[in-house]
Design goal:
The complex is a heterodimer of chains A (484) and B (135).
Chain A lengths: L1 E6 L11 E6 L2 E6 L3 H9 L10 E4 L2 E4 L2 H14 L4 E4 L5 H14 L2 E4 L6 H10 L6 H7 L2 E5 L3 H4 L3 H5 L12 H24 L8 H5 L12 E6 L4 H5 L2 E4 L5 H12 L8 E2 L2 E2 H13 L2 E6 L1 H4 L5 H14 L4 E6 L6 H12 L5 E2 L6 E2 L6 H6 L6 E4 L9 H9 L2 E4 L12 E3 L10 E4 L5 E4 L12 H22 L1
Parallel strand pairs in A: 6-7, 6-17, 8-9, 8-13, 9-10, 13-14, 17-18, 18-19
Antiparallel strand pairs in A: 1-2, 2-3, 4-5, 4-19, 7-15, 11-12, 15-16, 20-21
Helix pairs in contact in A: 2-18, 3-15, 3-18, 4-14, 11-12, 11-14
Chain B lengths: L6 E8 L2 H9 L4 H7 L1 E4 L1 H7 L6 E6 L2 E9 L8 E5 L2 H4 L15 E9 L8 H9 L3
Parallel strand pairs in B: 1-5, 2-4
Antiparallel strand pairs in B: 1-6, 3-4, 3-6
Helix pairs in contact in B: 1-2
Classes of the chains: A alpha/beta (484), B alpha/beta (135).
Chain lengths: 484, 135
């Protein structure tokens, strides 16, 4: 039995690097410090869902084959296609992504990463407006006002608040954890009193519940770190916040612009914006202007709804305005553990962060045209390679329909939904568990991922599989040239 | 369909911690399937539909129709808003339109909800076979 310390968790963009794993007989048996998703990943990576042999589709069924044959078949599919789509990349290493880009250029396809359906609009907006940002370390030590907008870190990045923001113990800013505990205790106390009153005295309970739900207004003005959540639902993260603003679905743009007005000390001539009373907004705007170091983290609530990239335009402009009054930064909450790395490597090698088309022999970038969903909706691609991703469980049905209709090569460790529909399925090692590599945290800090156990027999990392496919594609193409 | 209630709602999709854990356990695992074939509704909307929690409902949008299990939302009140976690069930009813920027509209989709106690919840395999015919 051995304990491996300082392991980086390969689940979300927070890349927590303080995980401790207990290894017994080459298996992870205990996970310390991780969140629920981290624990599920490390304890289930080798479950019955793991693919151990390469599979190819014959007569409608996936049957076992050799690795050599699977690679040959995958290379054939890609080399024969006119316009293959190479999609995924956000849950593998930067090293593998780099080979993937080379392969896309070789086969003249379109290559896209999962940013296209998460923070693609954010990237477009950042390219237009720019982004004042910093590392998560700066935020941990200095931020005294933290805003999560359209993001539910409690579910999607469970340790984000504890490691980097409101509940982290910074050098210059203390954790607001105690305030939260006090608040929860007070709430529980009030609930107990309410139920006692209900049982003993009154048949009809007093209407305390509405008071309990509204956050005490004074908490936003208290000293120390403050947490504001702006969302369409009262999520668990919202319950932790000092102040929660519940915006009507699809109205974030109005709310963002309203904050811009308030921050410039101008008056709003309406009572409510996006379903929120203006006096609430004035208090939040005051808190924003009066903080020393504020940060806005925004999630898919802004990128997927209503005005999409125009929401992000407004959010970035709000931060620009706030920087006239105080210090403010903004950061997208990146989902997959290496989606930031995918954007980085794409940009190093092609000049563009996602949705790159090589069909003319040089990289072209025009999201809306060269992005995965659009290519599929227009039914243009004639084959696909999916690496470390599961588009069938994340794409709208119409896009997924075209993806699975054509020859489909999947490289993934698990029998995910897309893998079940593959024509060639090549199992790979898990980066960060049984393969090493580099990933980028959401604040663009590269962090090495460890290989903590050996992969099952015959299982290669994504990088090596892609190299072999690339070599095979080149062989097929050179044969074709010779024959011509 | 007789006197059955049909409500016009706004559909949101998103991450839940259960879905996050489920996807790491394996996409064919019971944990995953149970975490994504559900729909959180405001308790008042459940009353309007005249159904109890854990009854199947049919969610229809301009893009498709899917049967999911209604659950009482722990995050209420949010009348008029329903929430289905990201996954193969939600994908049937979300809006694929990318508005020229590559991103489909996965939140804030107009939807109709009606009780469907007689319609069975499909297994993942059945759902994939029905929608893609390849599995």
């Amino acid at each position: 039995m051995s304990v491996v310390k300082a392991v980086t968790c390969p689940v979300c963009g927070s890349l927590c690097d303080d995980i401790e794993l207990t290894i017994e007989d080459g298996k992870v048996v205990k996970v310390k410090n991780g969140c629920a998703m981290c624990e599920a990943k490390f304890l289930h990576y080798n479950s019955e869902h793991r693919v151990l042999k390469p599979l190819v589709r014959k007569n409608g069924e996936l049957v076992k084959t050799t690795l050599k044959e699977a690679i040959r078949r995958a290379a054939e599919i890609l080399a024969e296609a006119n316009y293959p789509l190479l999609y995924g990349w956000s849950s593998t290493s930067c090293e593998a992504i780099s080979v993937g880009l080379e392969l896309a250029e070789e086969v003249g396809g379109v290559i896209d990463n999962t940013a296209v359906i998460c923070h693609g609009p954010s990237i477009l907006s950042i390219q237009e407006i720019g982004i004042p940002s910093c590392t998560l370390g700066q935020i941990r030590h200095r931020a005294d006002l933290v805003v999560y907008w359209g993001s539910n870190p409690w579910s999607a990045h469970p340790r984000h608040i504890e490691r980097y923001t409101a509940f982290s113990e910074g050098r210059f800013e203390k954790s607001a954890w105690r305030n939260y505990v006090t608040k929860i205790k007070a709430l529980i106390g009030r609930k107990k009193i309410q139920s006692a009153v209900k049982r003993l005295i009154l048949k009809k309970p007093p209407t305390l519940s509405s008071q309990m739900e509204s956050k005490p207004v004074s908490s936003i003005a208290r000293e120390g770190r403050r947490l504001i959540v702006i969302d369409v639902r009262r999520t668990k993260s919202a319950e932790m916040a000092d102040y929660f603003v519940q915006v009507e679905p699809g109205k974030d743009y109005e709310l963002l612009q309203a904050f811009r007005v308030l921050i410039r000390d101008q008056e709003l001539e309406v009572d409510r914006i996006a379903g929120v009373p203006v006096e609430y907004l004035e208090e939040v705007a005051d808190a924003m202007v009066n903080c020393d170091f504020g940060v806005v983290f925004f999630g898919l609530g802004l990128t997927m709804s209503g005005a999409k990239m125009r929401n992000i335009d407004a959010a970035l402009s709000l931060i620009r305005d706030l920087n006239m009054r105080t210090k403010f930064v903004i950061m997208p909450m990146r989902g997959h553990f290496n989606v930031t790395g995918a954007n980085m490597v794409f940009t190093w090698q092609t000049g563009y962060p996602y949705a790159v088309d090589f069909s003319l022999g040089y990289p072209r970038y025009n999201p809306g045209e060269t992005s995965a969903i659009d290519v599929l909706l227009r039914e243009e691609s004639d084959a696909a390679l999916v690496v470390a991703s599961d588009p069938v469980s994340s794409f709208p049905k119409k896009a997924a329909e075209h993806l699975v209709k054509n020859p489909l090569v999947v490289i993934d460790p698990h029998m995910n939904v897309t893998a079940q529909m593959a024509d060639v399925l090549i199992p790979s090692a898990f980066v960060g568990i049984d393969a090493e590599g580099t990933a980028y945290r959401m604040d663009h800090v590269p962090i090495p991922l460890k290989k903590v156990v050996n992969p099952p027999r015959g299982i290669l990392p994504d990088e090596e599989i892609l190299r072999r496919i690339l070599a095979e594609v080149r062989k097929i193409k050179s044969k074709r040239v010779e024959a011509a | 369909m007789g006197e059955k209630q049909k409500l016009r709602m706004t559909l949101l999709t998103g991450r839940t911690i259960e879905q996050g854990v489920g996807k790491e356990c394996g996409k064919t695992s019971r944990e995953y399937v149970e975490s994504v074939s559900i729909c959180y509704m405001d308790p008042e909307d459940l009353k309007l539909l005249g159904i109890k929690e854990k009854t199947n409902i049919q969610v229809s949008t301009d893009y498709g129709t899917v049967v999911v299990t209604a659950l009482k939302s722990k995050r209420a009140p949010h009348p008029g808003v329903i929430f289905i976690p990201y996954g193969p069930w939600a994908n049937v009813v979300v809006d694929p339109e990318t508005h020229g920027i590559g991103m489909p509209s996965l939140k804030g989709i107009p939807a109709y909800v009606e009780p469907a106690p007689d319609k069975p919840l499909m297994s993942l395999k059945e759902l994939l076979r029905q929608n893609f015919g390849k599995c």
